[in-house]
Amino acid sequence: MLLLKKFLDNLRNNILMKISALSFILLFCLSCSMDETIEVSTQGTVSIGTSDETTLASSSNHTAKQFSSQWSVTQKILRGGKQEGVELITLDNGKLKIRIIPTRGMGILDVKMDSIRLGWNSPVKEVVHPSHIDLESRGGLGWLEGFNEWMVRCGLEFAGHPGTDQFINNTGDPATLNLTLHGKIQNIPASDYEVIIDSEPPHRIRVRGTVHESFFYGPKLKLVTEVSTVPGSDTFRISDLLTNEGSSKQEFQLIYHGNYGSSILEEGARVYAPAGTVTPMNENAARNLDSWQTYLGPTKGFIEEVYLLEPLGDANSSTMAVLVNQDADLATSVRWDVTELPYLTIWKNTAAEEDGYVTGIEPATGYPFNRMIERKYGRVPELDAGESRSFTLDFGIHIGNDQVGELINEATARQIPSPLQIIKEPPVTK
Predict the structure, then answer these.
(1) Tens-digit pLDDT profile for residues 130-152
(2) Which one in 195, 209, 269, 275 has a CA-CA gap of 20 to 30 Å to 70?
């Protein structure tokens, strides 16, 4: 036993000596690191960002066609945080870069042309995956947790303010439905998408996707949406086809919620929208009705103002809205058919930049009130069983006083035959 104890004591002492030696070496290395950089391997870690881009189509893949500009359509997957797994499609026509989000209902994140951007700086910094959105949160305002795109579709079953609505259920009995802000379509991933290149000049490039909003004992709505542009053009188009795939008549609502921040929105910016009437949506808007067309710079504590317009159509039922910067040398336009989208909402939210400095120009089938209110005023359309309805909007970016001046003159001329009627009181919503 004594020999064994002596052996164990010697072994312990040797181990302690080696540990001390190793500790000295480690301390020495740490002291050296203060003076010189030690390279550390990060092999095996996952970086936050994006996957590598994959080219889906490009001008180099269509050598038999002659294009006015080189173009490409690429795809990548976002990584990290709440945007993990979100798919982005970039349609680059050689002049415009349009970023489409199949994961978020084929919405459009932004559109860029050189230093000009259609989009805004939302407090929501990520492109949020729908799996992280609870539409029922905060009293039905959960939609706002993912709101940062330039173009958001609101709909399809309902599209306006949260609240309740009465409806007839599958057994024919009255029932109450809780409605959430702006509907579901923006948080439904596309079932599929494809890239199509027209065979005939000017060889329009089309990114087409399909989104289903349907459930058992409820709506069965299919939206086939398409974003398209011509190579080298400063314009692009959204073309949608909405179909009721059910066997019964179905109500629907649809708002094209376009959101604009700097570089066009600024103090002194102005919106032109030929209309028959303009109505404040609430008392705050009513107090500032005289300045409904003009914008402030970023203003801390600003309370949103919303104005409801009935757009004027020309002989072809076409109408327009134009947002112009202060110097009238930069503008963006949208044109659409008033038989398809007979209403327009102007949302002014010129709050501090940190809180979301933005304005909304929103052609729609109605206004963003709760569906029960919209139905009362006859602004909730229906689709028969198997019926489809199409919607087309054309957008452009315009640079220079000459181009912008022509747009302003056109919008002004459209207004002259029918002077704008200003309704001073908000609509009755009770």
Answers:
(1) 999 999 999 999 999 999 999 99
(2) 209
